[in-house]
Amino acid sequence: MSDEKKIAFTESDVLNALLHRHAYDQHFATQESVDNVKERLTRFEDQMDKQFGHVHENINEFKALTEKRFDAIDKRFEQVNDSVDKRFDLVDKRFEQVNESINELKLSLEKRLDKIESTNTKLLFLIIGLFFAGFSALYFK
């Protein structure tokens, strides 16, 4: 024999092959077992499709419910916002009224102060006049 046709195995390869020969056993399937596996896989696939269908329905229901709740919350926030805006408008009007009243009181007070000043000036001249009249009456007597 020539060296070309010889196959060489190491001792460790032979020992591993003998010790672990179960890994090399083969299973020959019959057509019936193949058909059974196909049928089981088909049933499993159908069940998974149904379950995923239910999951998708539940997700869609949850989405719809969530959108409905968020819409309700948005409407409520809009109502609260409108209510707050109305109240601020009322407060603004009230402040404007109070400001107008303060301005009217300020004008009225300024007019009265002007009257008091003119009255004080007249009274001062009257007192000075009386003083001179009294002094002249006493001095020139």
Automatic annotation (TrEMBL):
Keyword terms, alphabetized: Membrane, Transmembrane, Transmembrane helix
Transmembrane regions listed in the UniProt entry: 123-140
UniProt cross-references to SUPFAM superfamilies, sorted A to Z: Influenza hemagglutinin (stalk) (SSF58064)
Designated name of the protein: Uncharacterized protein
Organism per entry: Vibrio scophthalmi LMG 19158
